[in-house]
């Protein structure tokens, strides 16, 4: 492959639900307008559940590592790193399983991999050049989650709080928070921390210039 000498930079951005991962990822994107950048979400790789009846799919714990098809994620990320195109899966949240549709994705020189559990899998960590953990207080994260789920997903306040207390919070404490130790950079306050964003993008520019 013609671009094999310039391996894409892979930046992993993680943190709890509502921490500001997407804001940080978009800030990196805006700060590097002259480079080709791909935002690559772990959420696209929830496991296919078409073999289960719908009632069983409703029991899915989307905050558990086993909810993700990391084998496929790693396979397709490795292809992008080799500058090969992929057909990325699409997850249907209404049917609680993988859609029949796919999204064709061409490789880019910077790949931002975003997701709550991307640092939990050692195989994924080894593919990252920079690992970022967005660290935001629990009360801010739950407020953001309530606002998002009520406005965008039409959920009730009671159902959001019940899910947070029964699933989201314990899964965060058990699986997400411990991955902070693997991060190269910890960003408090998410996308509002402009100093951290500036330092991060300066490092990315340095790597790109020296490739």
From TrEMBL:
Metabolic or biological pathway, per its Swiss-Prot or TrEMBL entry: Pyrimidine metabolism; CTP biosynthesis via salvage pathway; CTP from cytidine: step 1/3; Pyrimidine metabolism; UMP biosynthesis via salvage pathway; UMP from uridine: step 1/1
Location(s) in or outside the cell: Cytoplasm
Enzyme Commission code: 2.7.1.48
Residues that, per the record, bind ATP: 15-22
Enzyme class: transferase
Keywords: ATP-binding, Cytoplasm, Kinase, Nucleotide-binding, Transferase
Gene Ontology CC terms: cytoplasm
Biological-process GO terms, alphabetical: CTP salvage; UMP salvage
HAMAP family membership: Uridine_kinase
This protein's name: Uridine kinase
Source organism per UniProt: Vagococcus vulneris
Taxonomic path: Bacteria, Bacillati, Bacillota, Bacilli, Lactobacillales
């Amino acid at each position: 492959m013609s671009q094999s000498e310039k391996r894409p930079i892979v930046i992993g951005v993680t943190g709890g639900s509502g921490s500001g991962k997407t804001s940080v990822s978009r800030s990196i994107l805006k700060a590097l307008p002259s480079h080709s950048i791909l935002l690559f979400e772990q959420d696209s790789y929830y496991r296919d559940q078409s073999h289960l009846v719908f009632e069983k799919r409703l029991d899915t714990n989307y905050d558990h590592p086993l909810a993700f098809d990391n084998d496929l994620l790693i396979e397709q990320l490795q292809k992008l790193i080799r500058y090969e195109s992929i057909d990325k899966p699409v997850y249907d949240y209404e049917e609680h399983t993988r859609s029949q549709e796919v999204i064709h994705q061409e490789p880019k020189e910077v790949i931002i991999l975003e997701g709550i559990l991307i640092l939990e899998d050692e195989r994924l960590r080894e593919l990252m050049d920079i690992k970022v953990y967005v660290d935001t207080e629990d009360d801010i994260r739950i407020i953001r989650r309530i606002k998002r789920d009520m406005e965008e997903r039409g959920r009730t306040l009671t159902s959001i709080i019940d899910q947070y207390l029964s699933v989201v919070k314990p899964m965060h404490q058990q699986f997400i928070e411990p991955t902070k130790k693997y991060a190269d950079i910890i960003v408090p306050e998410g996308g509002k921390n402009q100093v951290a964003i500036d330092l991060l993008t300066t490092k990315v520019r340095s790597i790109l210039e020296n490739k």
